[in-house]
Amino acid sequence: MNDSYLQVIDVTKNFGDFTALQNVSLDVKKGEFVCFLGPSGCGKTTLLRAIAGLDIQSSGAIIQGDTDISDLPPSERDFGIVFQSYALFPNLSVANNVGFGLIGSGKSKSEIKTKVKGLLEQVGLPDQAKKYPSQLSGGQQQRVALARALATEPNLLLLDEPLSALDAKVRVHLRRQLKELQQTLGLTTIMVTHDQDEALNLADRIVVLSQGRIEQVGTPIEVYSQPANAFVADFVGEMNFIEAKRVDSGHIGIGDIHLAADMQAVDGAEQLIAAIRPEDIQVQNADTAPNGFSATVTDLEFCGSYLRATMRDARLGGAEFRADLSMNLARRLQVKEGGALAIAMPPEHLRVYPAK
Amino acid sequence: MTVTAQHDLNITRRRVQPKAAKDEFWQRGLILVVIAYLFVGLVLPIAMVFTKSLQNFSFQTDQVTVAFQTETGFDTPRTLQSWFEETGKEINNGLRPTERTRLAIVKVIPKPARAGIEAFQITDLSEKGGQFLIDGVLSEGGTTYEVERKKLSKVQVKPQVDYGLGNYGYYFSSPALFHSIQNSFLIAIAVVVIVVPLAFGYAYGLMRTNMIGKGFFRLAATVPVLVPSLLPAIGLIYLFGNQGILTPLLFGQSIYGPIGIILASVFFTFPHAMIIMIVALSSSDQRLYEASEVLGASKWRTFWVVTLPGARYGLISAGFVVFTLVLTDFGVPKVIGGDFNMLALDIYKQVIGQQNFQVGAVVSVVLLVPAVVAFAVDRIISRRQVAIMSAKAVPYQPEDDPFLDRAMLIYCGSVALFILGVIAMCQFAALAQFWPYNLTPSLTHYDFSKVGGGGWSAYWNSVKLAFLVSTFGACAVFIAANLVEKARGFELGRNFLQFLAMMPMAIPGMVLGLAYIFFFNDPSNPLNFLYGTMAILVINTSIHLWTVSHLTASTALKQMDKEFEAVAMSLKQPFWRMLSRVSAPVCLPAISEIWLYYFVNAMTTVSAVVFLYSPSTQLASVAVLNMDDAGDIAAAAAMGMMIFYTNVIVRVGYSLLTGRLLGQLQAWRHR
Lengths: 356, 671
Description:
The complex is a heterodimer. By secondary structure, chain A is α+β, with helices and mostly antiparallel strands. Chain A has helices at 44-52, 94-99, 109-122, 138-150, 168-185, 196-202, 220-225, 230-235, 327-332; strands at 4-15, 18-29, 33-37, 59-64, 67-68, 80-83, 156-160, 188-193, 205-210, 213-218, 240-248, 251-254, 257-260, 271-276, 292-302, 306-312, 320-326, 340-344, 351-354. Chain A is built from 9 helices and 19 strands. In chain A, helix 3 (109-122) crosses helix 4. In chain A, 44% of the residues are buried. The mean pLDDT of chain A is 91. Chain B has helices spanning 5-12, 22-53, 80-87, 105-108, 166-173, 175-208, 214-222, 230-240, 258-282, 286-294, 299-310, 312-328, 331-336, 343-353, 357-387, 402-431, 455-486, 491-502, 509-520, 534-544, 546-558, 564-570, 575-586, 588-604, 620-629, 633-659, 661-665; strands at residues 55-58, 64-70, 73-74, 78-79, 103-104, 119-124, 132-134, 137-138, 144-148, 155-157, 160-163, 432-434, 438-441. In chain B, helix 9 (258-282) runs antiparallel to helix 12 (312-328) and helix 17 (455-486) packs antiparallel against helix 18 (491-502). Chain B starts with a helix and ends in a 6-residue tail after the last helix. The interface between A and B is large, with 52 and 45 residues.
């Protein structure tokens, strides 16, 4: 199992009759930043809490380093944790919060003080040691929580939606800081999030979960550009879903239009769903490109830096799809509502899934 | 070692049995200790009440024989039964024997029949023995004792126990006792019908109008919790009694009886109902009133469709709380009830007056039933009350309404006048030289040396008890609640502890006190040494008041971030460090509130401790009772006022401390 640091093997978690996790297996490499991504109730937090030992799995094993930690209490596992609520102790100063895990560790008071000072510098809060949590902003509180989790020098950092309670700008700023810190420390990190941007931005690998099962594990680019199934395709990023039929082993039909596509994933199913991201629809030199055809623009939506065009065509049957055009391109091609536009659905971006 | 997913697949199908952390053994140990404490101090004694209520005693006169000495030795032994048959006397004069009834042999065998007999042979025919006592020593089974003439008077026959429903039969067929049930229910219902609307109106004035003096009225309404329930009864006697200053207002009706009981009960239950009503009215949503106004509803209609339904759970809950309080209180009917009997008073009379513990136990069981039912209903309702509160609710801001504000001022003023008037009357009576003939103020009645009840040492005992109970109780309750709310795993133990913590509220004080006599006064109980000590009073009072304290602590603990414990575990910190460094400091306001609750109630409680005090541990609240019983009513008023002063001082001190000291310790609360 070479370089894997954390192994989740066949983990199932039941709460009464409800199955929160079903036969989940996963490997996390040393120093890797992994995001658990999924809608609420998908089991991502349950999996994190199982790894922490806070809600131990019903069956299955979890191995950290060389140790089987499956049945160990949290206090005997090696991890630091940060919660969405920060969970800072309100009656302790920032310094005492950060130093809380160092009490009883055999360190002298001055050693603890130095360590705490260093940690606060690391998270960019060198002057806030004497304040109480309620005197800090949300972003500052979250950084204190991070410093506290790092104080005991854990080999695994668990983050439970740590940025969700913050406003957008702080979130992006803190995201960058978190990534830098994680890379500097080379710390194996698992973060739970329902925010796909956060996952795509931060993770080395993303684990997409739904209804207690793993849907896909992959790098952000893999998950985004090669979603393993319709759920992942829908959940991560924007996606056009178009009903289609199988034509032959290399082509699908949407209405009367036949398109070349990679059919490996569909296993000979007849009823299909074609998926393509709005930004992957080609409009430049489309008339000569493969899978090119002409469609009518029925609606134009202004979205700041780009335009979103809704398109239809009689030959497509009732199908409708959206394409994102940069403002620059839209001007050049003089795109307008009701006008015709030549487009192409490049075979390498067109994904096909069996219809449910 | 390397572990592969393949080779472990079989293992992973098995259920994972979580291991306990090192400090979890301490947590579990502590949970078991608290469970044991509540078990010994609550469950076992209450179980004894049930057992005792099933004990019946009877004299087995056919098991004891007496033979007379003749010149040729002893004649043929005769059973006591045959003597009864011969004399035609009834055993124990036809009365039901109790555990402590004794039958003197000299009363059974008529004097002429044993004239000139120098010695007797008395035989215990039973197998297990114990049929009679000679000089206090129990007889052995199948043994014959020879007794001289002089010593025959020291031979006493002892009744034997068997188990059955006889006591219940006796109780329900005795009209006087059965009448008490009816009386208790009627009085309790009457008080509920008076107090609940009264408190609702008062709370409405405080919460929903802009009348002046709200702070004062709020304080005035809570005065009754600072005194024992005996004190309003004494105050009412001074106001409306035989020599009362307002007696003509009763138009010839006597205050000694239902009227007095109802009035005094209204006084002491009022704050309990009012606090519940304040909570119910404070949880209303401004937006509902705005919606009602926008829809064009009149104020009167808004009151009926928004205000009252919003407070309905509070109204019902207050009703049940008041009902239970009146039903289980014995101080009021004792002082002002005259010959009007009530259930709780019957326990006292049976136990203290007649030493009939078994019938006392039967009345206790009868009293337990409505108390437990009322408690269960109240718990279910208060759970709903929480459910209707939404996090988004906007607090209600009353509008100015000069007419309503003035009307409420008059209303609340009248209620406050009644409450303060009764207290002022007690104060006046305590200071008057010789009521009603010499009203010169003096401190004569505060010199308790000339009256019974224990005097000043009783007062200091009470203060000591209050300090011990509040300090020990607040710590124990908080640690126990912390274990219930925050411990990892061991759900069985935690749920059981939660259940035990809720029980005391359903147990009337009289019943708990009696239960303690049964349990701790039993010589075969290894804890018997506690009987008659201050320790047993502390244990009893701490458990008697456990539930409310537990709920206060639980609520405070539930408001803390659920992830604190998870963080502490990830930081490898044991639970006690979390408890001492974070949970206890954060919950300090709740802990000090529990402390105050314990202190004030330990000063005023009578019902549970009245059975448990000893000459060296007499208490002020019991002294009030005993002084009143002995007719030293002015001294009783003075002692009651001492309790009042003490509680006022502690309360004021508490407010100052929470304002200043807590302010410093709790700097983190301020931004």
